[in-house]
Every structure is written in structure tokens, then in C-alpha cells.
Write a structure and sequence with these properties.
The protein has 307 residues and is α/β, with parallel strands linked by helices. The chain has helices at 18-22, 32-44, 67-74, 89-97, 111-118, 122-138, 161-174, 190-201, 220-229, 257-266, 275-289, 296-300, 303-306, and strands at residues 13-16, 49-54, 81-85, 102-108, 142-148, 178-183, 209-213, 234-237. Bound molecules: 3-hydroxy-3-methylglutaryl-coenzyme A (HMG) and magnesium ion. The site of 3-hydroxy-3-methylglutaryl-coenzyme A (HMG) has 26 residues, from helix 4, helix 5 and strand 5.
Length: 307
């Protein structure tokens, strides 16, 4: 390994977005109790950071309209950091009623994606967060932030990484503890990832960055490797490769959690996750959405891990 990689860590943190990113784009309505079963399975597999839902407008994301009831059913879980996406003060108020200790805000490096996704310009979104993030911090919550389309957007092509840096800086100044860089439509490739991360890391400490790679073109793990080598230690993933943003055409599944864990464990990188139980959680996810999921390990099985 040493001749190929110089900076592979002993341990990384995985942030599971299956119940949120994974379910927000599903075609069929999924009952709240089925979502709860999925979250239980993810907790049992050892995932400790889970985005359970979104407190967004039910008109915009009907699949997650049951967020309040779900959060109530999930309740507090010892040793778990449960979070939810919140676009505005209304979302924050709902997260507070649910007694969540963490929320995630989101904006896009692409102006058009931002408008499609939250019906605001990027500056307007920052204006909302300028009030909301300090308020969440006063409530004792931690706030994570996404910068979406950091690798590009179909109608604008490559996004300028300097814009990604500028937005990340603003969100950190507001008090967000971590910026998750989103390849929303899964177009990023390793050299591009290296260029983007090198620029970001010139100002933002690696501990404050995470990668959120959609695996639309099969590049997610290659990009994760680049991130690992450059010191990134938090990676987002979704069980079974669920996922997609309804306001980003062509955005398919996230990097599958099982694929990420398989690669990391075989490299000697610990995650605190039990691969067998994670595999079982993938089966639960498949039963919950009632369709075949695209994750590679999910489909091929874990045999090589046992053998
Ligand atoms: P708007 O229509 O401009 O908002 O939407 P509004 O303030 O005019 O409100 C419209 C209606 O929504 C009103 O209801 C509000 O009360 C209600 P009505 O009076 O018509 O019945 N509303 C809310 N209801 C519940 N909770 C709320 C809330 N806010 C307003 N928090 C808004 C603006 C931001 C609300 C809307 O655009 C929205 O909810 N967008 C969410 C879109 C979304 O969730 N997209 C997917 C997640 S992002 C993603 O997947 C990318 C990511 O994974 C990273 C990556 O991959 O790069 C994170
Ligand atoms: Mg996403």
C-alpha cells in the first residue's frame, strides 16, 4: 500500500444519507414505519452519523412529508448523531421540536441549481442561513453545510472551484462545523477532485471538509481515494447506493455505503461499522423501497470479506 498511498488513515467517519438523500427521490410513497426500520438497521450496523430526513417543504419533497413523525419515532439514540436537512427557519423550528442535536443547511455553487432546489438565489440563501445558523447554535445544535454541484452542473458546465471555496468560507464563518462538498450529478473525476481539494485545503482545514459523491458515472470511489490521500476523513454515503436530487436531472444514487466500507476495510481503514450487518441493512433498504438497488457490494455480496 505504502508505494501507492502515503496518507491512508487508520480510521474515517462515514456520514449516512440513505434515509434522506436516499428516499427523497423515490417514486413510490414509503410509509413512516418502513423508514424507521431502515434507520434501526443502519444504527444496528454501527453507523453513528445518520441524516434521518429533511424538514423541507412537503410540497417540494412529498416523500419526506412525514419528517416530524419519523423523527419522533426515531427518538434519541445513545451514541448516535442524528441530523436532518433544514432550508430555513421553519425547518429549524421543526428540528427543535424533534429535539435533534444537529441540522444540515444546503446551498449550491451553481446559481441555477440553487434556484431550482430552494427557489432562492445563492445570496438569498446565505441571508437565510445568516439568521438561522447562529439561532441553531444558540439552541445548542451543531450545523453541517452542503455546497452542492461543486464538480459541475449540466447547464453551466464546470463550476469555478474559487466559488466553492468562497461559499465554504462563508458557511464556516457562520459557524458550520463541516462543509460537505457535493458532486450532485456525479460528474467528478480524480484529477479534478485533486484540483478542487487542493484549492479548498489552502484555506479550510481537512477536518472541516467532507465528500458527498454521487456515483452516477462510477467515479465516486476513485474520488474518495483522492480525498483520503489529501487528508479528508469524512465521507457521505447511502445504503445500497440509494439517492438523487429531484431538482438535479440525471442525479442518480450516492456512493453506496457498503462499497465504501468494503474498500476502506480492505485497506485497513476502520469505520466502526460491521460489514455483515451493513449488508443486512442494504437488504432492509431494498425491501423498504421495493426495487433493486445499484450498490456493487450489495449486489455481489461480501464473500471476499469472509474468504
Ligand atoms: P418556497 O416555495 O419558495 O417557500 O420554497 P415559501 O416560503 O414560499 O413556502 C412555500 C410553502 O412551503 C408554504 O406552504 C410554506 O409554509 C411551506 P403553504 O403555505 O403553501 O402551504 N414551507 C415549509 N413547510 C415545512 N417545512 C419548511 C417549510 N418552508 C416552507 N421548512 C423551500 C422554498 C426552501 C421551502 C423549498 O424550495 C424546499 O423545501 N426545497 C427543498 C428542496 C430539497 O429538499 N431538495 C433536495 C435536497 S438537496 C440535495 O439533495 C443535495 C445534497 O444531497 C448535496 C448534493 O448532493 O450535492 C444535500
Ligand atoms: Mg446528494
Amino acid at each position: 500500500m505504502a508505494e501507492l498511498f502515503d496518507h491512508i488513515p487508520d480510521r474515517v467517519s462515514i456520514y449516512e444519507v440513505g434515509p434522506r438523500d436516499g428516499l427523497q427521490n423515490e417514486a413510490v410513497t414509503i410509509g413512516t414505519v418502513r423508514k424507521l426500520r431502515l434507520i434501526d438497521a443502519l444504527c444496528a450496523a454501527g453507523l453513528s452519523r445518520i441524516e434521518i430526513t429533511s424538514f423541507v417543504s412537503p410540497h417540494w419533497i412529498p416523500q419526506l412529508a412525514d419528517a416530524d413523525r419519523l423523527a419522533d419515532l426515531v427518538g434519541q439514540r445513545e451514541g448516535k448523531q442524528l441530523s436532518a436537512l433544514c432550508p430555513n427557519g421553519r425547518g429549524l423550528a421543526r428540528a427543535r421540536v424533534a429535539d435533534l442535536r444537529e441540522i444540515a443547511v444546503f446551498l449550491s455553487a451553481s446559481e441555477t441549481h440553487n434556484r431550482r432546489n430552494i427557489n432562492k438565489s445563492v445570496d438569498q440563501a446565505l441571508g437565510v442561513f445568516r439568521e438561522m445558523v447562529p439561532q441553531a447554535l444558540r439552541y445548542g445544535m451543531r450545523v453541517r453545510a452542503y455546497v452542492s454541484t461543486a464538480w459541475g452542473w449540466p447547464y453551466e458546465g464546470d463550476v469555478d472551484p474559487r466559488r466553492v471555496l468562497e461559499l465554504s468560507r462563508s458557511l464556516i464563518e457562520l459557524g458550520c462545523y463541516e462543509i460537505s462538498l457535493g458532486d450532485t450529478i456525479g460528474v467528478g473525476t480524480p484529477l479534478q477532485t485533486k484540483r478542487i481539494l487542493k484549492l479548498l485545503l489552502s484555506e479550510v482545514p481537512a477536518e472541516q471538509l467532507a465528500l458527498h459523491m454521487h456515483d452516477t458515472r462510477g467515479q465516486a470511489l476513485a474520488n474518495v481515494l483522492v480525498g483520503l490521500e489529501l487528508g479528508i476523513r469524512t465521507f457521505d454515503a447511502a445504503i445500497g447506493g440509494l439517492g438523487g436530487c429531484p431538482y438535479a436531472p440525471g442525479a442518480s444514487g450516492n456512493l453506496a455505503t457498503e462499497d465504501l466500507v468494503y474498500m476502506l476495510h480492505h485497506m485497513g481503514v476502520q469505520t466502526g461499522i460491521d460489514p455483515e450487518k451493513l449488508f443486512e441493512a442494504g437488504r432492509v433498504a431494498e425491501a423498504v423501497v421495493r426495487r433493486e438497488l445499484p450498490g456493487r457490494v450489495h449486489r455481489a455480496g461480501l464473500r471476499a470479506l469472509r474468504g
